[in-house]
Write a sequence for this structure.
């Protein structure tokens, strides 16, 4: 093993997903409340765009799918509002950092893995633009330089739990599935990688199992146990 894929929300970043979503859409509504746009229609369009990305068949990037759907629902051209959204992510979105916490066990685990020479990829569901994904990785408190890549909606054509997303990660970053594992907190979304015969470590501090599915992960334990496991990993041979 020489590569580890990490989910972000609820795994690297200690957070409650429902609280995050509520805060996220609340900030969007607040930002655009007194603008020329109907904030309720914007939220509806964003929900629709997100849903469309989750069903992406790979013919377009997730960003293209999002904006196509957003425009259909809101009747607002991407070129007109894209700058407003970019400014939102650089400023308003950053307020969410106050609602998350740093998990020191995860921080230490990443430091150890970096020292041992592992390739680390932040395989977060690519539903957000680069600025939003990189911000959330920074909020987690981990050494962001330890990660070679963060998956974003500009660069990917599928979403979790479609196994094609993980296949795209493997192909894009030249990863041999026989030499990697996935670390996540969602039994369904992250668990989809098991269809590619890739081992999964489910960190259960913020476990999500929406279908109450049987847990089939190779490991399922908390971040403290994950840290102890990481300490037993061999150094990667150069």
């Amino acid at each position: 093993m020489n590569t580890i894929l990490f989910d972000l929300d609820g795994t690297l970043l200690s957070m409650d997903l429902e609280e995050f979503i509520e805060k996220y859409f609340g900030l969007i509504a607040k930002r655009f409340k007194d603008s020329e746009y109907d904030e309720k229609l914007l939220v509806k369009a964003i929900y629709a765009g997100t849903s469309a990305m989750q069903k992406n068949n790979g013919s377009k990037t997730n960003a293209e799918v999002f904006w196509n759907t957003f425009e259909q629902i809101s009747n607002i051209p991407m070129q007109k509002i894209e700058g407003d959204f970019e400014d939102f992510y650089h400023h308003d979105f950053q307020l969410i950092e106050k609602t998350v916490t740093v998990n020191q066990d995860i921080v230490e685990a990443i430091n150890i893995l970096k020292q041992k020479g592992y390739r680390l990829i932040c395989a977060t569901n690519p539903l957000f633009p680069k600025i939003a994904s990189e911000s959330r990785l920074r909020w987690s408190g981990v050494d962001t330089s330890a990660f070679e890549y963060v998956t974003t909606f500009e660069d990917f054509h599928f979403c979790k739990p479609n196994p094609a997303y993980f296949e795209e990660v493997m192909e894009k970053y030249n990863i041999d599935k026989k030499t990697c594992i996935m670390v996540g907190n969602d039994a369904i979304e992250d668990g989809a990688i098991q269809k590619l015969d890739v081992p999964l470590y489910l960190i259960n501090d913020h476990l999500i199992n929406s279908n109450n599915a049987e847990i089939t992960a190779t490991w399922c334990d908390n971040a403290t146990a994950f840290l102890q496991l990481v300490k037993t990993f061999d150094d990667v041979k150069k």
